[in-house]
Design a protein that fits this description.
The chain folds into two domains: 5-223, no CATH class; 228-356, no CATH class. It has eleven helices and five strands. It has helices at residues 5-56, 63-68, 70-115, 122-129, 135-153, 156-172, 178-222, 242-247, 293-298, 302-319, 345-351, and strands spanning 227-233, 251-253, 268-273, 328-331, 339-342. The strands form two sheets. A three-stranded antiparallel beta sheet has the order 2-1-3. The protein has a two-stranded antiparallel sheet with strand order 4-5. Strand 4 (328-331) and strand 5 (339-342) form a beta hairpin.
Amino acid sequence: MAATRETIQLHKELQLVIDDSVAGWIRQLTAAWVRSWRIVEKEWIDVTNQLAIESANGATPSRRTVRRLKNVRRALNTTQRMLEELTTLSGGTLVGGVPGIVTETARMQSRLIASALPRGSAPRLLVESRDSLPNRQLDRIVRRTAQQITSSLRPLTAEATEAVMDQLIIGAARGQNPRAIASQMLKQVNGAFNGGLSRALNVARTEALDAHRDAARTMQNRNGDVLEGWQWLATLGDRTCPACWSLHGSKHPLTERGPDGHQQCRCSRAPLTKSWADLGLDIPEPPSLIRDGQQEFATLSRRQQLEIMGPTRLRALESGRATWDELAQLRHNDGWRDAYYARPLRTFQNRMGQTA
């Protein structure tokens, strides 16, 4: 694949579309959680003030006793109702936004493939003449993503409600100044309540990006006559994990799904065309402008390299006690899919003779 400046620019444009969509969801969900907390906060202030006074007097209540308190039951019921509404809102917001991502991803694949072929050539004209995915295929991707979103969000209400109760009990056992106890307890309850938001945002980013990859894979399969595979592209930066750095630029057969990155991974798959010679083009093919992760990493400053790898991983790489392809590790995830994560730091600590 002769990835050109046009190819790289198109990838950036598509990434912006995905990022803008996810950012919009995040704004909507965050605003909804803030509004809901304002409703339940007043009830939890009464609860935490009462429990703080009892705790400071040495009467730390049991979990069972706390659950029986009238104002606690009322606050828990309100919290559960708010979380149920938020879960429903989250699911609707995310599912409603998926079709746009899927459609735009599928549409952009033809442009990406064409950008790696000579202008006016028969293979490029063939790719440009093809329609995007049929609605039935797009709908199938959307339905599959919607099912995954619903499944991922289903436990949110119960888990967040129990987390609120857990933090309430922990706070009640502190035995400090009543005002300090109440303040800390309310802070912990707020953190548990907003844990549901963190879960929803994780689902938003993860499932949106998986839908994007699924649409890209389906459209690339449709152009299998001019493609030999796909290339793993990471959004490289100081916050990109070592696994994604190590996989950036790697080449994979068209039949392989992916990129199977970790949750919230922003990596994408770039279509990899057959060589121009294999496509019957008697034209010198320029080198691809996409470099692999190791080549890109070598161009960074020492400070940036340390920021990404940390001192132990970096020393292991530089000393030859670790290789670039060992940075990523495939792990099994129950209820989701297998995914690549950064290999645990202890692996490299052991090789360097360090203790955790």
